[in-house]
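Running low. Any example?
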Amino acid sequence: METRETSADLVAQPLWSMTRGLSPLVGTAIHDGHFLHEDVAALMALSPDDRLREEDPFTAAFIQDLGNRVVVHRSRFEVDLNRPREGAVYLRPEQAWGLDIWRERPSTARVEAILRQHDGYYEMLHALLCDVQRAHGRFILLDIHSYNHRRAGPGAPPTAQADAPDINIGTFSMDRAYWAPVLDSFMACLRRQPFPGRQLDVRENVAFAGKGEQTRFVHARFPGTGCAIAVEFKKIFMDEWTGEPDPQAIEALRAAIRASLPVLEAALAAMPGGKTP
C-alpha cells in the first residue's frame, strides 16, 4: 500500500500535538508518526511502506479518550523519541532491525539538528508532567506502542501466542512494588475487556520489558509521583505487511483503554497521600 507524501505535507506536518485536560492520566503515542522532513526524506533509502511496517500506526486512536495526550507526527526513522539522545537517529542497520535506511547518510550537522527535536520533546513532556503533578500530586502516563508478530512474512505463521500477548505491559524502570495497586488494577481491567471473538491476553514483560527512554525519563524525574506504563499492542488491529487497518479491532482496543481510565484514577487516588482528581 504505497503512501505518497508531497513536499507540502512534509513541511507542514507538526512535530507533535498536545492536548491538556483535567485528569491525572496522560496518554502518549510517540511512534504513531509517519512524516519526514523533506531533506531527511531525500536521503532515505527506505520506502514509505517499509517505514510504516516498523512504525506504530493507529496508536493515537487508543488514547483519544484521555484528556491529556501527546501524539508525535514525525516518523521514528527521523528521530526515535523512545531512545536515548545518543541513539535517537538510526545511523546503522543494527539500530533498526537490520534495515538499510540511508541512500546518503545525513551529515553530523543535520543529525544534530534532528536531535533538537528530541531535546524539545523532553522539555515539553517535563513541563506537561510538572503541571499535571502540581494539580494532582501523582500521575500515570500510558506510553502506547505496537509491535509486529508476523516478521517471517505475510504468509508465514505468526509469533506463537505464548511469546506474543495481545497487550504487553512493560515495567522495567518502575518501582513495581510501590506501583502494584495501579499496575494490577490496570491489567485486571484490560483482561476483562472484550475483543472480537475472545478476551484479551494481557501479560507483563513477555515480548518487551518496557526499557524505552520515555518511561525511564518519567521514573527518573518523578520518583514516587509518576507511574509510566509501557503498553505494547500486538498488531492484531491491522495487517502489518499492507498497513490495512481493522476498524473493529481498533475500536475494541480504544474501548479497552477507555474502560481502564476510571480504574486507574481510582487506584491512584487510593494510594497513600493521593489526591482525588
In short: Residues 1-10 have pLDDT under 50 and may be disordered. The longest strand covers residues 139-147.
